């Protein structure tokens, strides 16, 4: 029996001798009250051997066998399985994440790839793909762990913005002419209409005074 099991035997022996209650014995054994009641029941029915672990002396279900019905494998019989060739080669692949543009384009290391939007593994615009470059220069593009059909294209040509025309600087003579020119409101300007209305009211007032 283990040291912990021997300690439980001593505590339950005190319960049998009316020195402790079951609830106090559970605290001393470091278990809950219900577990303490189960241990006390096994001790009453089977004695000290009832507290021994049920799996003591039995062979583990996880033990390896060297043959059918043979003994368990020794520690030196354990072997670490080597990864498969695909996983081993994948270790040397350089991977980086890229975002798919609105026209299903992916840019990587100065190269441009056009994804097939109607491919079997559909990759939506705005999603993230993993671009993998192998040591020999081969490139793979994967979306959520699955390969995506693609083709390499030339760099897209950006439309050149129209050149802004330089502003024409007026000559000093033109600036002087503009400064001397007096602004004259047009005939239908509100200022002229207000002046006409004022003149008409003054004429009516003068006629009434006479």
Describe this protein's structure.
This protein has 210 residues and is of the alpha+beta class. Among the domains are: 3-51; 89-153, no CATH class. It has six helices and seven strands; from the N terminus they run ααααβββββββαα. The strands form two sheets. It has a four-stranded antiparallel β-sheet, with no helix packed on it. Strands 2-3-7 form a three-stranded antiparallel β-sheet, with no helix packed on it. Helix 1 (3-16) packs antiparallel against helix 2 (22-29) and helix 1 (3-16) crosses helix 3. The longest helix has 20 residues, at 190-209. It is elongated, with a radius of gyration of 48 Å. The model has no long low-confidence stretch (mean pLDDT 77).
Overall helicity: 25-40%
* Radius of gyration over all CA atoms, rounded: 48 Å
C-alpha geometry: elongated
Query: What would the average pLDDT be, to the nearest integer?
Result: 77
Biggest sheet character: 4 strands, antiparallel
Series of H and E elements: HHHHEEEEEEEHH
Cross-sheet strand order for the largest sheet: 1-4-5-6
What are the low-pLDDT stretches, counting only 5+ consecutive residues below 50? none
Oligomer: single chain
| Class from secondary-structure proportions | alpha+beta
Q: What proportion strand?
A: 15-25%
Distance between the termini: 138 Å
Number of strands: 7
Count of separate DSSP helical elements = 6
């Amino acid at each position: 029996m283990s040291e912990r099991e021997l300690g439980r035997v001593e505590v339950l022996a005190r319960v049998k001798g009316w020195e402790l209650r079951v609830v106090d014995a559970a605290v001393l054994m470091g278990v809950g009250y219900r577990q303490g009641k189960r241990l006390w029941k096994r001790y009453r029915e089977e004695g000290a051997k009832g507290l021994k672990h049920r799996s003591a002396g039995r062979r583990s279900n996880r033990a390896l066998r060297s043959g059918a019905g043979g003994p368990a494998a020794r520690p030196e019989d354990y072997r670490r399985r080597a990864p498969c060739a695909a996983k081993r080669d994948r270790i040397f692949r350089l991977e980086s994440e890229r975002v798919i543009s609105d026209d299903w384009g992916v840019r990587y290391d100065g190269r441009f790839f056009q994804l097939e939007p109607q491919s079997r593994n559909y990759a939506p615009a705005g999603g993230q793909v993993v671009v993998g470059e192998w040591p020999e220069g081969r490139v793979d593009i994967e979306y959520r762990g699955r390969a995506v059909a693609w083709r390499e294209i030339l760099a897209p040509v950006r439309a050149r913005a129209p050149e802004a025309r330089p502003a024409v600087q007026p000559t000093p003579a033109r600036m002087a002419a503009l400064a001397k020119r007096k602004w004259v409101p047009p005939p239908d300007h509100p200022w002229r209409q207000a002046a006409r209305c004022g003149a008409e009211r003054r004429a009516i007032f003068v006629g009434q005074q006479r």
